Amino acid sequence: MIAERLLPRVNHRYYKEVFGHLYAGKNSTWFYKKWSDGYKESNRAARRAFADEFTFTASFDLTAYYDSLDHCVLRHFLERIGLDPEFCIQFTDWLEKWTATDREIYHNHGIPQGPLASGLISEVVLSHFDSLKPKGVKFRYFRYVDDIRLFAKSERDLRRLLVALDLLSKDIGLFPQSAKISIHEG
């Protein structure tokens, strides 16, 4: 149900900006499109960006994304894709139970890592980053799950993009791994 509601909002980005956890559709034998196709396409897109003279690059990675995702934030985005508010509350209540510790300590954040649907649930929130569109900046944006790669024609533009991504992550209570963010040219 979540996958079918999300698909029309995100599939135009598949293999262009988004390359991981690509839902294959309800008529497919498989839940996701082949991960290896997404990985190959992300590398091709990066090479094209570089060939188009977007030679300043940076990677942006979120700290403990799966463990940190707030259930209220997830609920917000589930409702935005048109799911019933009661379903959204029930679903995040279940997540609270599914992510509890062995000592039965419950908290309102995190999604299980490993189950097939977790990747799709993560995409509901990660698509928030795909709205990155700072004015006056020409760039290329590629996301493979929670790893974002940026390409720009100048360091100044790249820094503006990183600030914009930082603000988008703070909107939803997530934090970039600043140690992993580095700018490269060439």
Short description:
The chain is of the alpha+beta class and about 190 residues long.
Question: What is the element layout, followed by pairings?
Answer:
Layout: H1 2-10, H2 35-51, E1 56-61, H3 65-68, H4 71-80, H5 85-98, H6 116-126, E2 139-144, E3 147-152, H7 155-171, E4 183-185
Antiparallel strand pairs: 1-3, 1-4, 2-3
Helix pairs in contact: 4-5
Describe the 3D structure.
This protein has 186 residues and is α+β, with helices and mostly antiparallel strands. The chain is 44% helix and 11% strand. It is built from seven helices and four strands, in the order ααβααααββαβ. It has helices at residues 2-10, 35-51, 65-68, 71-80, 85-98, 116-126, 155-171, and strands spanning 56-61, 139-144, 147-152, 183-185. Strands 2-3-1-4 form a four-stranded antiparallel β-sheet, sandwiched between helices. Strand 2 and strand 3 form a beta hairpin. Helix 4 packs antiparallel against helix 5. The chain is globular.
Helix and strand composition category = alpha+beta
Report the helical percentage. 40-55%
Determine Rg (CA atoms, Å): 17 Å
Distance between the termini: 43 Å
Could you describe the largest sheet, including whether it forms a barrel? 4 strands, antiparallel
Envelope shape: globular
Query: Main sheet: which strands, in order across?
Result: 2-3-1-4
Low-pLDDT segments: none
